[in-house]
Amino acid sequence: FDWDGDGDLDLVVGDIRGNIKWVPNKGSKKEPRFGKPEPIPAGGKPIRVPRGDAGPHVADWDGDGKPDLLSGAGDGSVWLFRNTSSRKPPLLEKGVLLVPPPPRPRPIRASKSRKPAEKKKPSKKPLRPGTRTKIWVADWNGDGLPDLLAGDFALGGPRKALDPSITPAQLKEARKKYIAALVEYRKYMRPKPGETEEQKKERLKNLERWTRERNKWIRIISRGTLRPKLHGRVWVYLRKKPEKN
User: Fold this and answer.
1) By the 8 A CB rule, do 74 and 18 touch?
2) How much is the pLDDT for 126?
3) What is the reported pTM?
4) How confident is the model at residue 159 (pLDDT cuts 50, 70, 90)?
């Protein structure tokens, strides 16, 4: 998007902390060369969306011919920053909440037995949006109004292990062995002052040995740990037509 109106395409980006910035193109259309990211203000303050993970998108949301800025956020909400200027760069108002964040799920707690988690029936509750929302604006149903598409990240379903045959006792022992291997591994990570070539060879030999040992227990832990299912869905929010007076 040509944020500064100089005829070439710039970048509008979000970061993990929730900041939204634009990156000026110091080059040209054919040979872009991007400068340093600069904060985008809204209502006089740099934009920062709740719980980080900003996902900005530029679109004319209110149909006034001026590009507005929208953004998903880490908590699953979606924000609108209206543009009040016909010139570039856009002059944005303070953010308005378009989509509220979903209720936060209860934390997943470890259980002493695998059986309750494995035999747990899928929830009959209706699906609901997750978090880390990324958005796009398009006329989804062809009614002439801009709609909102939102992709998410969520955890759901009964927790399962990749290898159910690994018992809790085996998992506990694997974690114990992993910690012990990690302690040994760290002893050989860095060279000591004045290390000779012979000592270096011996250190790297030990490092390789404990790397293998550490990875062996990591694989067991990874395959035996109860994990929720990860999923990402796309949701469509259809724009309502304005009511006639």
Assistant:
1) yes
2) 55
3) 0.68
4) low
Task: Compute the mean pLDDT over every residue in the chain, rounded to the nearest whole number.
Answer: 88
Helix axis angle for 168-187 and 197-224, nearest 10°, is: 160
Contacts for 237-240: CB closer than 8 Å, 24+ residues apart: 237/98, 237/99, 237/147, 237/148, 237/149, 237/150, 238/140, 238/141, 238/147, 239/143, 239/145, 239/146, 239/147, 239/148
* Phi and psi, residue 220, nearest 5°: -65, -45
**How many residues would you count in the chain?**
245
Task: Name the more confident of 195 and 114.
Answer: 195
Q: DSSP per residue over 161-175, as a string? A: -S-TTS-HHHHHHHH
What are all long-range contacts of 1-6, with beta carbons under 8 Å and residues at least 24 apart?
A: 1/58, 1/67, 2/88, 3/88, 3/89, 3/90, 4/88, 4/89, 5/87, 5/88, 5/89
Phi–psi pair at 88, nearest 5 degrees: -115, 145
Instruction: With H, G, I as helix, E, B as strand and everything else as coil, classify residue 137.
Output: strand
Residue 2 and residue 88 in contact, taking contact as beta carbons nearer than 8 Å: yes
Contact 133, 55 (CB under 8 A): yes
CA distance 10 to 23: 6
Owner of token pair 């040994």: 184
